[in-house]
Every structure is written in C-alpha cells, then in structure tokens.
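B., you asked whether I could sanity-check this one before it goes into the benchmark set. Here's the sequence:
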Amino acid sequence: MRRASTRVARDSIVAVEIRPAQAADALGVATVHVRSWQAAYKGLLPDLYLDQLDVERRRAGWARNIDEADWPRTGTLVATEASGNVVGFAHVGPARDDDVDPLVVGELAAIYALPDVWGSGVGRRLMAAAVNVLRDAAFVDAILWVLEGNDRAQRFYEIGGWQLDGAAKDVVIADMPLAEVRYRLVL
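And here's what the prediction gave me:
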C-alpha cells in the first residue's frame, strides 16, 4: 500500500494570505525558521547543530522583531494557510552592510518557507510581497545574503531577477567557517 504524502505537488499554487506579522505569529515564524534551516542547510551545516535548533529560543527573537517592526521600512511578512498556520515568512529592512547606503538600499534579511510547501509558489509570492514592501518604502535597490553552496536558494533568487553583485563575506555558523555571497535587485 502506498503511503499518502503531505508534500505539496511541485509548482501547485497553495492558497495563502500574505500579511504583516502579528505578535501571535512569533511561534509560527520560529517554527518555519527552524524547520526550513534543518532541510535547506542539510549537508552544509553539521547534522548535530541542525538537530539542536530550538523553536522556543527562536520564538523570543522573532517576537522581538515583530514587536519592533517599523513599517513601512522594517518588518516581517507571513504567509498563512486558511487555517491560520504560518507556512512562510520574509523579513525586510534597511541594508546593514557598511558599503551601501541604508537610506536607499533595502535588505531581504530572511525568507523561508516550510519544506512541505517548497515548489508550491509560496516562496515566489512571499518574495514578490517583500520586494513590493521594499519598493513602497522608497528603496531603490535591495540586497540579500546567501550561503555559498546553497544552490536551491541561489536558483530561487536568480529566477526572481536577483544577481550576484560581487560582494562576499566569511561567517561562522556552528563553529564552521563558511562564505556568503550577496545578491542585488534593482527595485
């Protein structure tokens, strides 16, 4: 007997609402953050580190981020199913890099979706909404950082029109030296 899959069919469009996050969304955002890291960074980060990621610890940080939103320039968007469950989120704000002007360059600081909705259109809709928020906040360019070797994410950004801009930086995650590359999008 074949087991039924809970995974969404590739390229099917999941019905979601995208809206600014509210305090009650912090647990859902933290859950998406942890679950997506555990799937997306498998093979890039140690399994032990990924297995120990803690939703409750992330919840506190996301509760603070949501509470400190300064719309229209800084905030978190959530994608929710009809049931109200958070299945994805994006966080935007002024760019944090020293080599860009945060008055005119925005940053997509985070965009994640539950692995069960990857390929369903949720990420594309979240990306479009985040770009619109940045554009509406009068940024002229946007940047984002991605771990080098995260091929799935890099393809996603490139399909969305983002282009490598030549900037790179070293980061340490789980005591591992890693490299990130920067993408840019003209708004």
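One thing to flag: The first helix runs from residue 26 to 40. Otherwise nothing jumped out at me.
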